[in-house]
């Protein structure tokens, strides 16, 4: 069995992208949470990544956090000089840095640091169940992949739902289940998540393929990771079930 990459990726109903350089008062905005900058827009889709607590060596993680802290101040200063609106050139520079940061993060995660608790299928099944728990009530899930030491999920929070609280619930519930199954105590997930707001249709399709390709690029066998797509993607590619 091989990993499947979707050829046809339909957009979700009422899809909307996000252009932070276009001025739309009281609708588009950005916030900063802990170590990482986050863009937020009601009704938008997000590619979010959260990882196991031991998945990146501490010294490397601190260096990456220092870089992000520098960008946080840089973006705040740039926006403050332009009535709260981020200039296009600053946004493009941030997107480029973010792309490089994600590639570095992905490379580090795929190196398989830490215990890789989720290489065990029983453990992944707990996370899978958790990711589906709020489907239709708090979020619309488009695709996700559960790797040995991290998770990528493409989702759209429903009206009135907060992405931070949603991912916090995923991590909290799965932590409780994993600790109960393994007989352990303590933190399972790194506190911070990394997420990107989906800019447009091309970005949405890139995100789906990014999720689909992750196990293949990490040279994993089907029993080492779990990939899931929603019904729209499955039907568009004439798939029934399986990875």
TrEMBL record:
A biological process term (GO) from this entry? methylation
Task: List the transmembrane segments.
Answer: none
Keyword Transferase recorded: yes
- Enumerate the UniProt keywords alphabetically: Methyltransferase, Transferase
Q: Which GO terms describe its molecular function?
A: methyltransferase activity; sequence-specific DNA binding; transposase activity
| Keyword ATP-binding recorded | no
The residues covered by the Transposase IS200-like domain are 41-214
> What name does this protein carry?
Menaquinone-specific isochorismate synthase/putative DNA methylase
Give the organism, scientific name: Prosthecobacter fusiformis
> What lineage does the source organism belong to?
Bacteria, Pseudomonadati, Verrucomicrobiota, Verrucomicrobiia, Verrucomicrobiales
């Amino acid at each position: 069995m091989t990993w499947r990459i979707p050829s046809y990726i339909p957009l979700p109903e009422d899809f909307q992208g996000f252009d932070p350089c276009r001025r739309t008062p009281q609708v588009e905005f950005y916030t900063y949470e802990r170590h990482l900058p986050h863009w937020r827009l009601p009704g938008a889709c997000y590619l979010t990544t959260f990882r196991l607590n031991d998945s990146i060596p501490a010294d490397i993680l601190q260096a990456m956090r220092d870089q992000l802290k520098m960008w946080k101040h840089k973006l705040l200063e740039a926006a403050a000089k332009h009535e709260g609106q981020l200039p296009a050139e600053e946004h493009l520079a941030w997107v480029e840095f973010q792309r490089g940061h994600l590639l570095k993060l992905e490379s580090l995660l795929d190196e398989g640091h830490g215990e890789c608790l989720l290489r065990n299928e029983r453990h992944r099944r707990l996370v899978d169940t958790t990711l589906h728990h709020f489907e239709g009530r708090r979020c619309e899930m488009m695709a996700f992949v559960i790797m040995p030491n991290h998770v990528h999920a493409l989702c759209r929070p429903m009206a009135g739902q907060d992405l931070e609280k949603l991912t916090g619930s995923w991590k909290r519930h799965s932590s409780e289940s994993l600790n109960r199954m393994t007989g352990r105590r303590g933190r399972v997930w790194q506190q911070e998540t990394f997420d990107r707001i989906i800019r447009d249709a091309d970005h949405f399709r890139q995100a789906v393929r990014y999720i689909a390709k992750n196990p293949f690029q990490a040279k994993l066998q089907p029993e080492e990771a779990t990939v899931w797509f929603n019904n729209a993607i499955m039907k568009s590619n004439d798939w029934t079930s399986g990875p």
